[in-house]
Amino acid sequence: MNSRIASVGIAVIMLGLGGLALAGPPLVCFPFETNGQPSLPWGGVAWHESSASYDTTKLASDTVSLLGNDVSVIARMETLRRAGIYAAKDQRAGAELLAALKSRVKNGGDRKTVAYALFDLGYYADTYRQASMANKRPEPHQIDGYSLVAKALEGEPNNPEMHFAAALMTAHSNNKKEHEHHLEQAARGAQEGSLLARNLVSHFQWRGKDLKTLRASIK
Question: Cα(86)–Cα(81) distance, rounded to whole angstroms?
């Protein structure tokens, strides 16, 4: 599984129809629209423009505080994307956040709490790995992030936003079947014009210019 993520690396990835070229790791280089939901401080509009003044010693506590059960999956994805970029620049802070997210999984809780804890750990693990590679840093851990997100989906099987995350994580997988399954579940659960629909179209634009054509592209 790690080799699947590593294969994405920092290379230019040719995706889909028309030879659309997207440069860089997919979990890191493409911000998510969140309708202004709270996230970590940021420095600019570009995907990599983190805040130069942000104190990364607070990364673990700040990130965890933004991951309550009332927070949408897409908002979590953007927070964890930013966290991964900060972590790649300060690997001590990155390791502290990884440990904090592991602790949340161990602490357990009700079904939703456990599912979100598994999701956050898995999604951050893969994002942190991709951000580290983009910064030419050593692989920071050996966690299989996708397997944790798949386990989270066992507790939240009808969560289309979580399927959206899993579809991104498997976009360059050798197993097209699992990718198409997650993308189908995400697209089926998205309402036209919703935040999820807009993110689906922007992140899978080579599959369709709108939700209807994206759905039609799924086999």
Answer: 9
